[in-house]
């Protein structure tokens, strides 16, 4: 049996470089400590709905946005 | 003695996308000195819609949750914006994220063309409005006073238009009143909101007297010396302006016209002696 090694992916999260072992958007949120926080996500400019986060795989160079409600005009 | 019955009719209702709104003031939630002042200003304004946004969140931050708790306590409808978006794709994705987070399909659509003027990129705006409308959104586009752009936005499915009064945050009021009057006349029956550029209650009243249906403002209240009192002032001005519009304003004249009857004026037949005023 081969040992499954988690590939470390270099991605950006909210504009900052991040090296992650997460394979999906859902795993990334868990790894970063977002837990059950109310956030919305996008991958490479496309909306990733909450129900699709587990199935949305990460790849090298991905640009992930994690946003939350704020004041606005 | 005869009691005088009040005969002032209540103002007509404002409807956006089939939803009747009790107030013609839409208020932004940014730039207030504190969350407490924001909450009190919203209450004092009587606004039934407040604008909100999305911003990048830190894993350990609670800013978003605290903000949602505050807004939730106010009992108002939220209108998420796409502020800062420069492309159709950014605006569409931001709207989709906002729909999920705020649980509303209403969106104040902004596609910004230029940093100095924050003017709408009307080409991107029309395109994004069409994409979002097809995706089930109820789009309230932040636009210019241009008539052909208004036509394109209506054709794209927008049922409300929000032309700027002046650049966002400038407080300059209605920079192009002629064009805004034209737009009002050109789009009868379409709810029109003056969005951005309003600095003083008199400017909001002017927009309402022109027949605009509502006013959206933020900085003028948030950056006032006393935002809560300024919210009250705007609410009164908007109500006054709307009531005046519904009452029917007199037309302007080039020359004076005496209000006191001319007939029966004493000494009328004598004429003025030289040197008399």
What does this structure look like?
The complex is a heterodimer of chains A (73) and B (277). Chain A is 11% helix and 36% strand. Chain A has 1 helix and 5 strands, in the order E-E-H-E-E-E. In chain A, a hairpin with a 2-residue loop joins strand 1 (9-13) and strand 2 (16-20). Chain A is mainly beta. A 5-stranded mixed β-sheet of chain A has the order 2-1-5-3-4, covered by helices on one side. The relative contact order of chain A is 0.28. Chain A has one helix spanning 25-32; strands at 9-13, 16-20, 40-43, 46-48, 63-71. Chain B is α/β, with parallel strands linked by helices. In chain B, 37% of the residues lie in helices and 15% in strands. Chain B is built from 9 helices and 10 strands. Chain B has helices spanning 35-45, 63-72, 88-102, 122-134, 147-155, 177-186, 201-209, 219-222, 227-247; strands spanning 14-16, 19-21, 25-28, 49-56, 77-80, 106-109, 138-143, 162-163, 193-195, 214-217. In chain B, strands 5-4-3-10-9 form a 5-stranded parallel β-sheet. In chain B, strands 6-7-8 form a 3-stranded parallel β-sheet. Chain B has a two-stranded antiparallel sheet with strand order 1-2. In chain B, strand 9 (193-195), helix 7 and strand 10 form a beta-alpha-beta unit. The longest helix of chain B has 21 residues, at 227-247. The A-B interface holds A 14-15, 32-34, 37-42, 45-47, 49-50, 65-73 and B 28-32, 38, 51-57, 59-61, 63-65, 67-68, 71, 80-81, 83, 89-90, 92-93, 96-98, 100-102, 168-169, 196, 218-219.
């Amino acid at each position: 049996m081969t040992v499954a090694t988690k590939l470390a992916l270099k991605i950006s999260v909210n504009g900052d470089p991040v090296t992650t072992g997460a394979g999906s958007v859902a795993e990334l949120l868990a790894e970063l400590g977002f837990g059950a926080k109310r956030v919305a996500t996008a991958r490479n400019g496309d909306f990733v709905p909450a129900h699709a986060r587990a199935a949305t795989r990460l790849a090298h160079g991905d640009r992930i946005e994690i946003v939350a409600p704020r004041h606005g005009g | 003695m005869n009691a005088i019955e009040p005969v002032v009719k209540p103002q007509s209702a404002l409807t956006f996308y089939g939803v009747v709104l009790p107030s013609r003031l839409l208020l932004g939630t940014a730039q207030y000195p504190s969350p407490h002042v924001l909450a009190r200003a919203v209450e004092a304004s009587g606004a039934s819609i407040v604008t909100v946004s999305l911003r990048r969140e830190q894993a350990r931050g609670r800013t978003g949750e605290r903000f949602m708790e505050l807004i939730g306590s106010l009992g108002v409808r939220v209108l998420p914006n796409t502020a800062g978006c420069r492309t159709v794709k950014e605006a569409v994705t931001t709207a989709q994220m906002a729909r999920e987070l705020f649980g509303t399909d209403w969106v104040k659509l902004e596609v910004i063309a230029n940093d100095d003027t924050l003017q709408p990129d009307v080409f991107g705006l029309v395109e994004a409005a069409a994409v979002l409308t097809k995706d089930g959104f109820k789009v309230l586009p932040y636009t210019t006073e241009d008539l052909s752009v208004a036509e394109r936005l209506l054709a794209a499915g927008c049922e409300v238009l929000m032309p700027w009064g002046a650049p966002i945050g400038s407080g300059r009021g209605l920079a192009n009143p002629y064009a805004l009057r034209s737009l009002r006349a050109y789009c009868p029956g379409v709810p029109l909101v003056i969005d951005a550029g309003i600095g003083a209650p008199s400017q909001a009243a002017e927009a309402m007297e022109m027949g605009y249906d509502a006013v959206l403002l933020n900085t003028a209240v948030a950056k006032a010396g006393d935002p809560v009192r300024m919210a009250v002032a705007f609410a009164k001005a908007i109500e006054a302006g709307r009531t005046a519009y519904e009452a029917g304003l007199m037309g302007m004249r080039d020359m004076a016209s005496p209000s006191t009857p001319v007939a029966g004026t004493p000494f009328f037949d004598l004429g003025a002696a030289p040197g008399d005023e």
